[in-house]
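Sequence in, structure out.
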Amino acid sequence: MKKLLLLIGLTLIQVSLTMGQWTSPGNGTTYTLRDLVASSEGCVTHETGTGAYHFHQDLTIAPHDCLTVVPEDFTTIDADAGGILCHGNVLLTIKGGLVIDCGDIDVYLEPDSVSRLRVVLDHSTEASRFVHTKMFYMSGIQVIESAVSFDDCLFQSFDKTETNGAIQYRGCDPVLTGCIFQGNYGSAISGVNGSPQIDRCEFRYNVLSKEDMPQLDFRQGGADTLRLLNSKVVGLYPLVGGIMITDPREQEGTKVLVQGCFIADNRYGYCQQGLHVDALLRDNQIVCNQIAPNPANDGFGVCLQDQTKATLRHNLLHSNLWGVLVQGQATLDMGTADDYGHNILYNNHNGSNGTDQAYALYLEGTNDASAVGNYWGGTTEEFAEGVIYHRPDLGADHGLVAYLPILTVNDWSLAEASPSATNAYPNPTEGLFVLAAGQGAGFTYEVYTLTGQQVLQGAAEGATATVDLQAFPAGVYTVVARSAQGTVQTVRLIKR
């Protein structure tokens, strides 16, 4: 992919400029960068030697106008070397629309070391769009009751002088696809009264300020369901949480779907609090959220507080300090007699009380919980009772967990598969296991870690293969079997 450099930095040429800002006339005009050079009265200039454009002052795109960044702005130079530079602290206010879409060309935004850039979409009349836009060291993107989408964008090293999040929204539903947020000083995304739609994004090591903040901070959802799909939320700092959902409103409600996500190494994985949050967590891997400074209070994979509700199906929770923690009058559905949970919980250990105690599910709240049809690290009722804390352990003012029947790992893996599905046994395993593809003779296989790293591959001439994982660390692996006819099936495997 080509790279087109849009930098917000110190201008390299001497230009005589008027002070103040430039505002477009609001007559429905669409401006390119070349147009702004001609019409912005020195606010935007062009350097012929490098082909760079320079922003020198605050600029406002008025309602019904639009600023577009297009490849044609850079036709006179090698697109790999083009740039847009800005001098000083610049506020770009969009009341019309802003579109950065140069096809397969990457667009870079970056202020110099003594400058700041802030972008505000303020009740925009047109939908804005950022495509292949890489942004560094900015002072936030505010989205106020405006339609905007971000596709394959990078947000890195944003400060938090103006916003708590690299993106901070209010009263709207930003759409983010394939974006990366890493090393920002505040949250990656924060906002209120909106339901972001997030798919295939990565959130890594945010809240570089090391404050008590989550990487994703959602408050009071909008009319739509807030969706976080197929994304990664990976932490680093002890006070920094993963995902926080909050709604204190008496009458409204926040609907949440978290599906297909990998949430790891945070102070906590997922937490919801308030009066009206109703969430579905499905097909997630919530692991190793154990870096809390006080293990007695934090380090949970999932936490429900106050009067919120959550349904958990087909999730994997392991190596957290707590698996699932329920507090207050929260309501938990981890499986019913008619709809098994198929969640795997194991190795959620907490040493805060001086002993290494396993807490798969801790029902500190007052409501009963349904957790039928899950795997708890063992398959006996005695084992499950040892890792589930509820009324018999905590007293009559706590809820009771219904958790029978208990599933084996194979039950969980194959619950929705066809009779010819791939199987692995024993599961859990000490290292050696038999892989049965169930589709006749001849298949290939690969073994992957939770983070997607391939550790083994092989082939079988018959209907089974013996696979050796003894040299690899304990954990959960995904085994992919491919038949000679091209059919692909997977099974989850636990190595002790």
